[in-house]
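Support reply, case 0932

Customer input (verbatim):
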Amino acid sequence: MQNRVKLPCGLSTGSGPRFNSRRTLVTCSAAFCYNEATHVLEFVPREGSPERWGAYCENCPERRIVPAAEVDAAREQGVRTQGEHFDTTRLPLSDEHWRYREFTDDERAEIDQIKNGELVETYIRPGIFEWQPAGEKQGQQA
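Our regenerated output:
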């Protein structure tokens, strides 16, 4: 299992160069996926702006997005066969509220900085890691 690390722009990624064999990748934000992150997963609420849920590889099976009608049919089938205790967390994500998109220019620039060693994964406190400029420790210049 890898660390979840936030870019300075706030996008969540997996561990980067210090914690993978290629030493140049920013990995998928899924806990057990070590593929390179290529897209951003967003939740699109009915009102307001989309919320970024992290950087993921394009084919991460945990983040499948399917038409809303398929999700509704699967939910109805699950409730019919398993009753009200049906575990909806195993359903795919509905395209009514979820989407993948490619990185914006700012997000891509930060990914490139990590690949070039300009941003490094930094331990902040237990369970909290951030990408920070190389040579900087917890917000202060070295």
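We compared this against your earlier run and they match. Two observations from our side: The first helix runs from residue 68 to 82. Helices lie at 68-82, 105-115. Please reopen the case if you see a mismatch on your end.
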